[in-house]
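Customer escalation, tier 2.

The customer says the design service returned an amino acid string that "doesn't look like it belongs to this structure." They asked us to rerun it and document both sides in this ticket. The original structure tokens are below, unchanged.
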């Protein structure tokens, strides 16, 4: 990995307002990944099975959040938006039946929280990405 000069870093870096949006987006993506990990644990204790795709998506979310917090590059907001959208599209349909036909209050509340955090992660990441791109153009 090459060492970057200050000029090279400043070229791809973002301003303080955009940096705040990136950090907020990283925090929401990390929270979404932790909620998915919690879902894996809950499923394991109920059914004694591990859903490997959820484990992979949770780990990927933590990696995306770490990359966002470490690099603070403008492309990381797009990465967070794509990750959040993929997870929401992949896991969302499994949460809707929990809301429409609740088995218990805890399952329903958990499904609602997962969907709300997923939509918030997509919206915040898109705001961080589009806010930066609109200022450039």
């Amino acid at each position: 990995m090459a060492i970057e000069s200050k000029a090279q870093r400043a070229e791809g870096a973002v301003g303080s307002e955009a940096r705040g949006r990136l950090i907020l987006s990283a925090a929401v993506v990390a929270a979404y990944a932790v909620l998915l990990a919690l879902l894996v644990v809950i499923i394991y204790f109920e059914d004694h099975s591990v859903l490997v795709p959820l484990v992979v998506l949770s780990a990927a979310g933590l990696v995306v959040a770490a990359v966002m917090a470490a690099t603070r590059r403008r492309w990381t907001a797009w990465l967070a938006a794509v990750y959040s959208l993929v997870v929401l599209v992949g896991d969302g349909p499994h949460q809707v039946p929990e809301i429409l036909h609740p088995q218990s209050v805890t399952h329903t509340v958990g499904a609602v929280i997962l969907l709300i955090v997923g939509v918030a992660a997509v919206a915040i990441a898109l705001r961080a990405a589009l806010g930066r791109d609109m200022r450039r153009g």
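Tier 2 assessment: The sequence is consistent with the input. The longest helix spans residues 16-47. The chain has a mean pLDDT of 85. Sent an explanation to the customer and offered a walkthrough call.
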